[in-house]
Amino acid sequence: MHLLGPRWQRQTRRMLKLFGVLVILGLALACITSWVLDSYDTAWHPKRSVQRPTAGDGDESEGSSPPFPGGELSNIFWFIQVSDIHISRFHDPRRIPDFEKFCTDTIEVIKPALVLATGDLTDAKTESKVGSLQHEVEWQAYHNVLKRSRVMERTRWIDIRGNHDAFNIISLDSTNNYYRKYSANQKVGSFHYVHKTPFGNYSFVCADATLTPGPKRPYNFFGILNQTQMDLLDTFRAESLKSNQSIWFGHYTTSTVVSPSPGVRDMMRSAVAYLCGHLHTLGGLMPVLHSRHPQGTLELELGDWMDNRRYRVLAFDHDLLSFSDLRFEQWPAVLITNPKDAQYLHPGVEPLGRIRRSTHIRILAFSEAPITAVHVSVDGEPLGKCDSAGGPLYVLLWDPSLYLTGLHTIRVKVEDAAGRSSVREQHFTLEDDLTPSFSFVQSFILLTDHYILARVVFILTMLLNVGVLLAFRFLSVPSGRGFYSQACMSLHHVSTMDTFFYSLLLFNLCTAIGPWFIGELIDGHSGACFAFGVFVDGHFLEGSLTYVVGVVQMLFFNMPLTSYLCWSLHHRCRGNTFRSHFLRPGCRWRTLAVHVFMLLLLTWQAHSCYFLLETYGSIAFFLSPVRTWALALSLILVYRAWTGPAPLLREHSKSVSPS
Questions:
Q1: What SS3 state is found at 262?
Q2: Backbone angles phi and psi of 280, in degrees to 5
Q3: 323 strand-pairing partners
Q4: For residue 359, what are the contacts with CB-CB under 8 A and spacing of at least 6?
């Protein structure tokens, strides 16, 4: 009892300290979580309001002036967006004929005022999908579709470059820059197009962030806008203030664009929406990727044509933007333009008061067969059958005063003469301060500057890895038989044996500041790739995806290699060899699992070397400290750990003795 008293008090103090640390960490985590969720909350509320244009950005419009949405085919036009077409000479033989049918039949049915093709017109990849190369035959196929379908005679076709359209191109004047020869638009760089109608002008501003020069994949996944390009976009923004509304469009999402402060999102603050593609629904994980910028501008990423055959129909109806994401050959296509979907309201620039003073529900319905019926219900109550107002517009008389408060649901069912039907359902509200928020995941993907996040994670990971090596080389480690003590001792073995310490230190420093490889980043033009960016033919492209690749390299090779060497030397220190440590009772399967895991990591590193060879050639393969050399170094270190001199017990006994 006498002995238990002091021991119990020490254990109590330790538990109280641990409890205090956990409470502090819990509070810190709660604060960080609250801040993150609030930062990505896109709903209209006092903490994060949809800001109205500042002075000089145009007059504030509340929609108090006519015209108001009524029963006539007036003050409305519609247009189409299609993205990531990826015309390919090797893959998906149906892609080209489907695209031609889209240009011929779909465009003929919808009759859009203009079409925005937002990048990646061609695939520009080798048959193995590893390398990247501009194939003139792909561009000729794209051009021939436009010519045979005569789509440019029936609508304004505006096609812009994506990252695939800039693969392996050293300059805009290069002979393999086929965009300038075969595209419909042939305008390289950002531009401002004004669509003129009898009821006003509408601005379409292209933000072209594709890289020049354009390296081979994957290091042009992020776009870059320099200060000169940002100044040009600011000029376009000022010009667009004279229009009724403005739409910005580009290939990259704003989260994958590197731009100087205050950033590209702030530049497009006066626009009602930014239309883009690029992310391909993230392999089907995110079929809908929409969000709202802090300044209020909507960001609407469109799924790809390549695999999903997606396209989008948008309409400005009395200066209110509505849209519907559709699939190829799914008819009828339905778009409700009044009342507008509550989630996509932009009070800062749209005349939302016109919805409250409108007299008719307005619906655009398209189909290859004649439309036979358009039924409307609100909050489950049938309102009746719409009348045709001419063209694809169908209208139904309604009384907005019945829905002035709360969130309501409008449901539209469209039927055509071929017996097909489509249902469109959306929420609407007539309140000024009620806007549903987009999901956290959508907002995180679209509103985060991922190159900054990757840069921070890369630096922290690198500091952790290098810092641990340095700390355990010069600091004493605790003695004991627990897991923590054994782990510290293992790290001490690696850090105090010069062969392992200097090899791992130089490898990590090379990953941080040295060249990853030197080779032809563009055919005929040599360069070097670093974590902080890419040098090619005298040009410097700021680091973006390089940081992401660096984080993956650190987490899936550098750090596991260090851990495996620690584990191996720990067994050697205890008198085991490579064969004998398999024979320990009860540890055979666990030991096998560790070796299999390391073998998988070595295989992954070998595959990275193969990717480097296929993408950038043999010079890059042989001059790659972080890929090829690192693979050879890791094999040597693993062999040395199991066959070289074992760490001596008297060496680590010195380390645990008091200084």
A1: coil
A2: 55, 40
A3: 314
A4: 68, 69, 70, 71, 397, 398
pTM of the full predicted structure?
A: 0.89
CB burial of residue 617 (10 Å; 0-12, 13-18, 19+): middle
- DSSP per residue, 359-378: -EEEEEEE-SSPEEEEEEEE
Phi and psi at 362, nearest 5°, equal -125, 130
- Position 177, amino acid: N
pLDDT tens profile 359-412: 999 999 999 999 999 999 999 999 999 999 999 999 999 999 999 999 999 999
CB atoms within 10 A of CB 142: 24
Cα separation, 465 vs 459, whole angstroms: 10
CB 48 within 8 A of CB 41: yes
- Tell me the backbone φ, ψ of residue 363, rounded to 5 degrees: -135, 135
Write out pLDDT tens, residues 40-95.
666 643 234 344 444 344 444 456 688 999 999 999 999 999 999 999 999 999 99
Of 383, 381, 380, the C-alpha closest to 395 is 383
Tokens of 239: 């010009």
DSSP 3-state of 31? helix
Q: Give 641's DSSP letter.
A: H
Could you tell me what percentage of the chain is helix, strand and coil, using 3-state DSSP and rounding each to the nearest 5?
40, 20, 35
Q: Are 551 and 625 in contact (CB under 8 A)?
A: no
Question: 112: closest CA among 490, 439, 391?
Answer: 391
Rounded-to-integer distance, Cα 402 and Cα 361, Å:
13
Residues 6+ positions from 162 with CB-CB distance below 8 Å: 83, 84, 118, 119, 120, 121, 210, 251, 252, 277, 278
Q: What per-residue string of b and e applies to 578-609 under the rule 16 or more CB within 10 Å gives b?
A: eeebeeeeeeeeebeeebeebeebbeebeebb
CB 321 within 8 A of CB 272: yes
Residue 79 C-beta-side C-alpha neighbours within 13 Å: 18
In angstroms, rounded to a whole number, what is the distance separating the alpha carbons of residues 287 and 568?
45
Angle, CA 533 vertex, CA 528 and CA 539 arms, to 5°:
65
Tokens of 160: 């812009």
The Cα angle at residue 185 between residues 141 and 166, in degrees rounded to 5: 65
